[in-house]
Amino acid sequence: MAHSDPGKAQLRFSVDGVAMVRLLGPEDRYLSTIEAAYPNVDVHVRGNDVTLGGSADDVAAVRRLIDELQLALRTGHDLGESEVATSARMLAVDSSVSPSAQLGAPILTARNKSIRAKSLGQKNYVDAIDDNTVVFGIGPAGTGKTYLAMAKAVRALQNKEVERIILTRPAVEAGERLGFLPGTLTDKIDPYLRPLYDALGEMLDPELIPKMLAAGTIEVAPLAYMRGRTLNASFVVLDEAQNTTPEQMKMFLTRLGFGSKMVITGDITQIDLPAGTSGLKLVTRVLDGVDDIHFAYLSSADVVRHSLVGRIVDAYTDYDAQKQALRQESAEAREFAARGPQRAASGRNPKRSSS
Question: Residue 162 in contact with residue 235, Cβ under 8 Å?
Answer without folding.
Answer: yes
